[in-house]
Structure formats: C-alpha cells, structure tokens
Design goal:
This protein is of the alpha+beta class. The strands form two sheets. Strands 1-2-3-4 form a four-stranded antiparallel β-sheet, covered by helices on one side. Strands 5-6-7-8 form a four-stranded antiparallel β-sheet. β1 and β2 form a beta hairpin. The two termini are 27 Å apart. The radius of gyration is 21 Å and the shape is elongated.
Length: 189
C-alpha cells in the first residue's frame, strides 16, 4: 500500500489512508475482505485497478455487511447494526424464544467474588462476554453492563453468568438497535 502512496494507521494496522488534494481515501483489510472508501472517486478507481492487477478481486458494490455489522444507507445518513449477530448469539445460547428484559443490568447489582459462589464453565463465559464486547461497538446501551461482566473473566460464577443472561434477554427486546450517523448539511462538500 505504501507504493501507492498510502500510510498505515498507527491505531489500526489494517487501515491505510491517502490524502490527496484535500480529499481522503481509506482502505481497510481483514483477511480476504476489504473496504475502499473516501471522497476521491478518481483515487478509489485507480486503487481498485492497481489492486486488481496484483490480486484476484471482486467488487461487491456498496457496503451492506462487514464483520457482522450491517450497514444501511438512507438520505438521512448511515445506520449500523448487528441484528443478525444478536439473533445468531441468542440462538446459539438457546435464548431466541426467551422473555425479553427492559434493562441490560439489574440496578444496584451485587456482583462480586464471594467464596460461596458456584464456578461455571470459564471458556463458555469468556466466549459469551467476548461476543458481547464486540457487539457493544454498535450497542453502546450495553457497554456498562458488559464492562461489569468483563470483570469476572478470570473466575466466573453463577451470578456473573446470570448477569450475562440478563444482557442477552435485554438484546432480545431490540435486536436491530444500532447506531445512526446522520448526514449533516455542514459536512457536505
């Protein structure tokens, strides 16, 4: 990417950026998937041709789904959600038909490490919490609850697992909730 004038991001090594004539082009790569985005259509077209000369590529058109994140565009902006990811997760743990919860964590929860707690499957707990951490990218409404259950990754027990189930039941109430990025008049070029 450097030979095409792109610079690798220090904060995300899968992100490459190029600034030219006040415009920006970005390329993000994950294994064999990539997204090319920016406000320089000439540079995007050039990059696509350069990459196609070196790699077998297929242009899938406008971004609709990437790494479990659904992308929907409208005149008002861009909406990101992980609806399918939530439904798959609920199905995986057998909670697809569960009763939904109104809140992601019980207020004034008393989670902690107590000697009388029953230990649970550590690997399962860590996988579930890891999936919830990833889900919190488009669901900031669960971020606090996920940060609480993350504190028990090293030694999970029934109480923290019940808190994880509470988060999952909350997700059941609105699996398609996500983030809306509104188009701002002042940002138009």
């Amino acid at each position: 990417m450097r030979k095409y004038g792109f610079h690798q991001s220090n904060s995300d090594h899968t992100l490459f950026l190029k600034h030219r004539r006040g415009k920006t082009t970005a390329l993000i790569v994950y294994v064999d998937d990539m997204i090319i985005i920016g406000d320089d259509s000439e540079e995007i077209s050039c990059l696509q041709k350069q990459l196609a000369a070196e790699f077998e590529m297929k242009n899938l058109g406008g971004l609709k789904y990437f790494l479990g994140i659904e992308v929907a565009r409208s005149k008002g902006g861009i909406f990101l959600s992980q609806r399918k990811y939530v439904l798959d997760l609920l199905s995986e743990v057998g909670l697809l038909e569960c009763k939904p919860a109104d809140i992601p964590i019980i207020q004034n929860h008393k989670l902690g490490e107590y000697s009388n707690q029953v230990p649970i499957d550590k690997g399962r707990y860590q996988r579930l919490v890891g999936k919830l951490i990833y889900l919190s990218h488009t669901r900031p409404d669960i971020a606090y609850a996920v940060s609480v259950v993350s504190q028990f990754m090293h030694c999970p027990s029934e109480d923290p697992m019940n808190a994880v189930i509470q988060i999952l039941r909350y997700l059941k109430s609105s699996p398609g909730k996500g983030l809306m990025f509104f188009e701002e008049e002042s940002l138009k070029g």
